[in-house]
Amino acid sequence: MTEGQIGILVSSAAILATAAALWRQQVLGIIPLSVVVACVLGVSAFLVLSF
C-alpha cells in the first residue's frame, strides 16, 4: 500500500467519524448520513484502486 492510499483511507475514516459524531448529536438525519457514507466509500474505493 502506498502513502497516497494510506492518506486516502485516513481521510475517509476522519470524514466518516465526523459524520457519525454529527449523527449521534442529531445534527444529521439517517438519509444524509447514508449519502455521506456512500459517497465517501465510493470515492475512496475509486481513488485507492486508481493509485
Keywords:
single chain; 51 residues; mainly alpha; 2 helices; 84% helix
Mean model confidence by pLDDT: 92
Characterize the biggest β-sheet. none
Low-confidence stretches: none
Q: Approximately how much beta-strand content do the residues carry? A: under 5%
Layout of secondary structure:
Blueprint: H1 3-24, H2 30-50
Helix pairs in contact: 1-2
Description:
The protein has 51 residues and is mostly helical. The protein contains 2 helices and no strands. Helix 1 runs antiparallel to helix 2. The radius of gyration is 12 Å and the shape is elongated. The termini are close together.
At a glance:
It contains 2 helices and no strands. The protein has 51 residues and is mostly helical.
